[in-house]
Amino acid sequence: MGFLAERGIAIAGCADTKLVKGGDRTALELAGDVLESLLAQTGIERDRIDGLAATPANAEASNPFWTNMLADALGLSPVWTQVSDLGGGSIIANIVRAAAAIHAGLCETVLCLAADAPTGRFLARQSGYRTEFMDPLGFSVLPIAFGLLSSAYAEKYGLPERGMAKLAVAQRRGALLNDQACEVLRKPLTEEDYLASRMISHPLRLLDCVMRCDGANAFLVTSTKTAREIGCETIVHPIAYRERVNFDPRGDVGDITVTGFSDVGPAALRDAGLSPGDVQSFHPYDDFFIAVILQLEQIGFCKPGEAERYILERDIGPGGALPINTSGGQISAGQPGLANGGVNLIEAVRQLRGEAGPRQIPEPRNAVVTGIGIIQYARNWGCSNVLVLERG
């Protein structure tokens, strides 16, 4: 992805819908809503969008023609399409796949879109090891997998519950300042509230976990030249990206707590010419707080086993040394669909565009966004990816 370092690709705009639980709109309707917002924000004509990159919708999981149906519903006629099935890594993967398509001359302007409405209809079904070894034993939901992962971490380093409590409170403060966050979650939270929340899969508490909701987010990716032509005042460049699927396939590492971020995190920062200390905001995929702990350590912000101390010693709010998930993250804003990662990406882009309102980080120049895929049987998550953004 060396071409990204040339700053020839731009995220020219972004938009999202209000996150809701138990909404009455379909994934296609939410997609239409968010596209209208994006067109209004950027001023680009619909006909200039000639690429479409989507994430699968759990409400439409059985649909093998998702980009076709989206294009029809949205009034688009793309010459290039893409569906990425990397779970929480899908949306940042699509930003870079769109960039590659533009760089290769396959299209000029791409709509990267994620829309889902799983609280009304949920059709996704995963197979493989799940039906053979997991479902028959009741190992059927993600809190169980992340509970086991948390137990493995605790066995080595101790459970970082004070650090996760601070994360929970900081992200909830962000959600309280985020009008797009799901109202069910926009309630004040203290560390005592977090620690008192009930255990659901030891040692995971209820407030460690993400909540599914309905919503959509969208990004306009084009060349820097085109972004300037359409009057984009603030350009955000994707400048580095790394991705790893099925890390450690033979089990050579022998440690379930070591993830693909130990590979792709340092590599992405190196590609961007940054050290962890240079990162001005961090937007890690947060379906469970233990995932944030592992990413901090393995991307290189601190050593293994030291994430709790790292968090406790720093201000992780918008004015702090390392702001983390300043809009609430998925755990306090809501996760639209089973996974796509757009909630954290849109916050990173807004911060760099200076559009985060009361959550705004002073004069940000860069941001790091991550994604996570499914947890494999007796393994860590299946996808780890990292995107580095820079204000143009």
TrEMBL record:
Domain Thiolase C-terminal: 254-375
Domain of life of the native organism: Bacteria
Pfam families for this protein: Thiolase_C_1
Gene3D superfamilies: 3.40.47.10
Protein name (record): Thiolase family protein
GO molecular function: acetyl-CoA C-acyltransferase activity
Organism: Enterovirga aerilata
